[in-house]
Amino acid sequence: MDFEVSVIGAGAVGSVLALLLAQQGLKVCLIDRSNPFEINTVSNLGTRTTALNLASVELVKQAGFWESLKKESTPFNRIYVWDSKGSTKLEFLAKDIKIEHLGYVTSNNSIQKEVFKILKNFGNLTFKPNNEISEIKVEEDKVIISNSQGSKITSQLLIGADGVNSVTRKFSKIKSRTWKYNQNAFVTSLKSEKHHKNTAWQIFTPSGTIALLPFDAKDEANISLVWSAERKYSEYLNSLDERAFVSELEKKTEYILGSFEPRGLISSFPLNQLHTKSYFSERIVLAGDSAHSIHPLAGQGLNLGFADALSLTEKLISARRRAEDLGSDLLLSSYEDSRKIPNLTMTVMMEVLKQGFEQTDPWIKLARNLAFKTTQETNWLKEKFIKEAAGIT
Q: Nearest to residue 156, comparing CAs of 296, 374, 332, 293?
């Protein structure tokens, strides 16, 4: 047997998962079709960012690179949400649950850069970049992974963390349910006229959701934009030049942060939802976007993936200490049980929010306003939402 565990996909979830396992002494192979650790310095402002909740911060601390990542991250202690067609706002404050911060915004590039600094120094972790998988074959006690060059790798367990278009999921024949949102997400970095006040700002509009996240990137940008736009409107946005795009953003956000100056490339991608019917098959298990992909309106995608990584790591380490088979159905079923309901719950919540704010019916608008007002004025309910956002259980 070449390895105890092989991980396909060296993005944030896969690389952190591989690192956590290696730190516990497992012999691990990390495989990727490209090399995500070759950071594109042109986009080092982090056009793609993520809002790490406190549970994810704890995971990064466990992996050993939080102190360096923290220097490239911006904390937020307030979430401010409002409806462009409503009269009520929601305000979540860290101090309401007696904590300093609700989370940190950081770039995907920074996560990759910092995890690789540690990962590359582990002798029991082998990284194989630029490996295109051609076949995955499961035998009684092992998984055989073949690449397009004819090389083979064997391990007790194969973890697929290779994203929504997962090759692992395809070869394992794990079935999934997926559909298109008919939306595109626009992401970029901006400099705002007004300071962000360490607040994550979010506005719901009839044509989509806009999030303005605090992200102080080396004095060049202080806002990370995630704008989810309905398909027809997104076509209009794509037709605009940079200045016109920013002007449209200023109007849609009601100038809450004043004017904006672009500080990075404006990129867009289609939004889809996916959830697999099972998280595992024989000696193959899925984590992160390979198993579930949700709407980015609450910024929980990577946090869910990191929660998968933590659960799977704990179960694998426990099984190894008991000298149990790391690829057993019993172990993988236990992992699925720990993560499927939380992931599905978040998926449903995102769908309800999205559908609710797309409706123009006046009774639904009234219900939205009432829901905002009730949450804002009911302390225990508000605290529950704050803890959920911060990843506190």
A: 332
The DSSP string of 236-286 is HHHHS-HHHHHHHHHHHTTTTT--EEE-S--EEEEEEEEEES-SEETTEEE
Amino acid in position 264: G
Superfamily of domain 3-67+108-178+273-352: FAD/NAD(P)-binding domain (3.50.50.60)
Q: pLDDT of 162-182, one tens digit each?
A: 999 999 999 999 999 877 778
Lookup: tokens for 21:
């396992």
| Residue 221 binned pLDDT confidence (cut-offs 50, 70, 90) | confident
**Boundaries of every domain in the chain:** 3-67+108-178+273-352, 74-102+181-271+359-390
Place of tokens 């770039």: 107
Q: What angle do CA 96, 101, 102 make, to 5 degrees?
A: 80
**Residue 226, φ and ψ in degrees, nearest 5:** -130, 110
CA distance 230 to 352: 16
DSSP code, position 364: H
Q: What's the rounded Cα separation, in Å, for the pair 268 and 266?
A: 7
Find the Cα–Cα–Cα–Cα dihedral 48, 393, 312, 17, rounded to 10°.
30
Length of the chain measured in residues: 393
Q: Provide the edge-to-edge strand list for the sheet that holds 74-76.
A: 49-53, 103-107, 74-76
The four Cα atoms 172, 173, 177, 182 give a dihedral, to 10 degrees, of: 80
User: Angle 176-179-185 (CA atoms, 0-180°, nearest 5)?
Assistant: 120
Give Cα separations from 243 to 225, 246, 385 (angstroms).
15, 5, 36
Amino acid in the structure at residue 298: A
Name the helix (H) or strand (E) containing 177: strand 176-192
Q: pLDDT of 268-308, one tens digit each? A: 988 888 889 999 999 999 999 999 987 665 567 899 999 99
Amino acid at 354: K
Of the candidates 160, 155, 153, 158, which has an alpha carbon nearest to the alpha carbon of residue 141? 155
For the chain, report the end-to-end CA distance as a whole number of angstroms. Answer: 39
In the CATH scheme, what is the code of domain 74-102+181-271+359-390? 3.30.9.10
DSSP state of 48: S
- Give the residue-averaged pLDDT of 190-206: 93
